[in-house]
């Protein structure tokens, strides 16, 4: 099966929230992505509600149910609830996403920049993963490709990892191959441990083809920042189709 494309629409909400009101409409944008052929929608609501809000999560979950596609909800399961953010597990319980991707972000981070420490996180993660699976969610863990204990990611019952591809994207832009080799090695280690492998962060039309050519077994890529930026020039429908073409060509 070829790699699935899940479009992250966080950045649509950034633009909307910059003025208040409803435009651009997150659900309309997500619908455009799905009509163009995207396989699912990702959001990573942050506790400060800087972009995706709780009401967006509900509306996008309903949209994904309407299209019978995967809704991938990302977040830090340890971040406490606060007004406007009920907590990651409570959100999952309310909307039952097909996939819950756990990301160990702290509050002030501009964006995600690291995965879990698999030497130390297992005891805390195990009951959370179990609760999410009881809700019917597939569980994926955000992971640095060079973490020495990656093979332990399966110990908490997770189904997949999501390789953090920020370092790959930076290295690719410099013409450096080493981070891609790290990702390929990490994918092999995770698969040998029985885990599926997703990937995301800073993937773009410039680097996705090289990434998938080296690691064709990636099950899903979630792409937001670059895709939404590129869509400002080419349009959302065209941009999503371009990503799907890259994925199709990489699978040949
Ligand atoms: C886990 C990951 O890499 C993405 O979800 C990324 O964190 C997007 O979040 P922002 O849109 O807030 O940067
Ligand atoms: N999980 C990664 C994601 O959803 C999108 O990350 P980015 O493309 O916005 O960097």
TrEMBL record:
It is found in: Cytoplasm. InterPro entries: Aldolase_TIM, PyrdxlP_synth_PdxJ, Pyridoxine-5'_phos_synth. Pathway: Cofactor biosynthesis; pyridoxine 5'-phosphate biosynthesis; pyridoxine 5'-phosphate from D-erythrose 4-phosphate: step 5/5. It catalyses: 3-amino-2-oxopropyl phosphate + 1-deoxy-D-xylulose 5-phosphate = pyridoxine 5'-phosphate + phosphate + 2 H2O + H(+). GO terms for biological process: pyridoxine biosynthetic process. Its main location: cytoplasm. 3-amino-2-oxopropyl phosphate binds at residues 8, 19, 202, 224-225. Gene3D superfamilies: Aldolase class I. Keywords: Cytoplasm, Pyridoxine biosynthesis, Transferase. GO terms for molecular function: pyridoxine 5'-phosphate synthase activity. Its EC number is 2.6.99.2. The record marks 162 as: Transition state stabilizer. One of its GO terms (cellular component) is cytosol. The keyword Transferase applies. It holds the Pfam family PdxJ. The active site is at 44 (proton acceptor), 74 (proton acceptor), 201 (proton donor). 1-deoxy-D-xylulose 5-phosphate binds at residues 46, 51, 111. Catalyzes the complicated ring closure reaction between the two acyclic compounds 1-deoxy-D-xylulose-5-phosphate (DXP) and 3-amino-2-oxopropyl phosphate (1-amino-acetone-3-phosphate or AAP) to form pyridoxine 5'-phosphate (PNP) and inorganic phosphate. HAMAP family: PdxJ. Homooctamer; tetramer of dimers. Belongs to the PNP synthase family. This is Pyridoxine 5'-phosphate synthase. It comes from Solilutibacter tolerans. The lineage of its organism: Bacteria, Pseudomonadati, Pseudomonadota, Gammaproteobacteria, Lysobacterales.
